[in-house]
Amino acid sequence: MLSLAQLGVAVVVFFAAGLFWFLGGRHLREAASGRLLYGLPLGTLVAAGFLLAVYLFLQDGLGHWDDPVVFPFVSWSYGYPAGMVSAAFTHSSPSHIISNLSGLVAFGVIVEYAWGHSRDPGGDEGVWPWMRALVVFPAILLGGGLITGLVSLGPGLGFSGAVYALFGAAVVTFPGPSLLAVLATSVLSTAVSVIQEPLVEGTVEPAPPAPPDWAGIGFHAHAVGFVLGVLFGLWLLNRDLPRPSVASVTAATFVVGLVQSLWLIVLTPAQSTFLRYDGVGFALLVVVAGVVGIAAGGSSDRLSPIFGQRRWIPTRRQLGVAWTFLVVLGGGAVVVLGVTAATVPAGTLLLFVGAGVVVALLPVLLVFGPTEGGISRRHLAAVVLAMGLVVIAVPGIYSGGATVADANLEDRTTLAVEDYQLVYGTNLTVERGNLFDGPGERMNTTGTAAVAVASERRHMWTLGVRSERLAVEPTDTVVVGDVGWREEVSITRSAWDVVGNETVYAVDLATDDQCVRSFKSPQATAGHTLAEYRFAVVPTPDGFAVQVKETSGRSVGRVAVPPVNQSTTVNALTIATTDRGDSHSVEVSHQETTVTVAERPADAPAGCDTSTASGSP
Fold first, then answer.
1. Packed helices 246-259 and 278-297: angle between N→C axes, nearest 10 degrees
2. How far does CA 200 lie from the centroid of its chain?
3. Average pLDDT in the 385-391 region?
């Protein structure tokens, strides 16, 4: 339900937009009406409505706008087709979908204008305009998203690959308006964010450690989508659109790519380590901008002297012999690798096959170019882009074959919710494989303590909440589910700071009807003694206990940590939990002497702690 402030801001924003459209945008409406039904980007709006409906109903965003169901819709593996198909159309948060919808609307208008509704470009009457507007163009947009989702590098989520395809198509067809669309994207995102949250309050508080924001960006899907969009835009240019200049397309590609982080390249060589190759990415953006500019606005004149100043042009027979030799050579290499497949993974073979596909594009240059007196700059640049698309897509295809052969959770205390298993642990291991290679080696998340969420049916294994975050914010929530159901799993880190030693803690996982203590840290002994006794705090399956030992090491007894303001005894010792206002402390008394064994904040969560004052020596 919108608040009064949200409703007021929404009214102002929509009134201002309507005033601009009807008073200041008359010439825009007239221009748009020449190619779009009623001058409106109906196909873009249909696609945006579809994405919003998926978020609201399929992901339960209607009931939980800030916390939708995510895990079942991620592109974990080709072995989980539902995730591969749905990943491009689902989103992880309100900011995620707002960002993609803003880009879709801002750039979709340009590309849909280039596509046109009224007739089939080229002069012949085409598909019924309503079909082109409401069916064909939305299908193109959603199909682009599906393609980028299927070949993205690693598990992914979101429509951004298709949005970057719109970036590519827009800079090629209408470079000038594309620069304005960058500004429009920012305006739309800001307007929606303001409507969603008119008043923002911030406080000074410690922030839990987290990966950098750019580490989770799907740069690979963005690159695939952009090149795919450029090729689509080139196809549109060859139909009925005026061809822009090389300089305008190059400049627009560079600016849009720079603002939209098309230069981003991120690798993760180890757990909690992220490398961003800014220099390489920037250089590649400059090169790509130049190639795209030539492909869109370059000369159509043939480049005859590509075989030297003698202008020797091979015959088709000579080309056929040369090409046959290359095919035989490549086929022989594949056969050799196939024979040695016992030592060379099939995934490596896939990469060679991908390289062979790139080589297979060479006849476009060799047969159709030189025999006509050469190829054009425009033709050459387009083929280079097509080659680049195959090259960057192959690693994504291979990564899509990732599988979870064994989550290795049998010996751990897990919480099961349908096909999901959740566990907290340190140095968790998972046996991964690949559909192209077969079972792989055991992979160890060395040095990482976290809540892992696994589902062998979905080939899913991921870190839900890291220990560093729980140390700062001891409670968190992980949402699991699927279409039609969701379950919120609360994660609680309950702890005692042992005086003179380390923190003792336990991690509990709970739903509405079950609570599991998934992890217990080793016990810790306080740094001081009392009456020849030493005291250790020990996590137990349902709480914490105080272990009493003589200084010689002989155990005297163990009692559960008493509830606040209650006490229990072991021999002549009184063990009590005392309320000190902003903290609670476990204290041991003997005659007139009292020592503090452990402390924790008064508002510390209890988790599955059901301990009582009773205990036995």
1. 150
2. 26
3. 86
Looking at residue 372, what is its pLDDT? 47
- Nearest in space to 185 (alpha carbons), one of 107, 262, 258, 263: 107
Beta-carbon neighbour count of residue 581 at 10 Å?
6
How far are the Cα atoms of 34, 42, 68, 537 from residue 97, in angstroms, in the given order? 31, 19, 11, 47
pLDDT at 12 over 70: no
Spatial contact of 151 and 161, defined as CB atoms under 8 Å apart: no
Asked whether the predicted pLDDT for residue 53 surpasses 80, the reply is yes
pLDDT digits (tens, 9 = 90+) for 80-105: 999 999 999 999 998 899 889 989 98
Decide if 114 contacts 437 (C-beta within 8 A).
Answer: no
Rama region for 600: left / alpha / beta (φ>0; ψ in -120 to 50; rest): beta
d(CA 74, CA 479): 13
Q: Cβ contacts of residue 552 below 8 Å, gap of 6+?
A: none
Cβ-based neighbour number of residue 598 at 10 Å: 25
pLDDT score, position 361: 54
CB atoms within 10 A of CB 190: 13
Higher pLDDT, 53 or 411: 53
pTM of whole model > 0.90? Answer: no
* Beta carbons within 8 Å of 498's beta carbon, 6+ residues apart: 504, 524, 525, 526, 536, 537, 597, 598
- For the chain, give the number of residues: 617
| CA pair distance 122, 5, nearest whole angstrom | 50
DSSP-derived letter for residue 572 is T
- Please tell me which residue, 226 or 182, carries the higher pLDDT value: 226
The Cα-based distances of 65 to 1, 52, 217, 303, 371 in angstroms read: 11, 11, 21, 57, 60
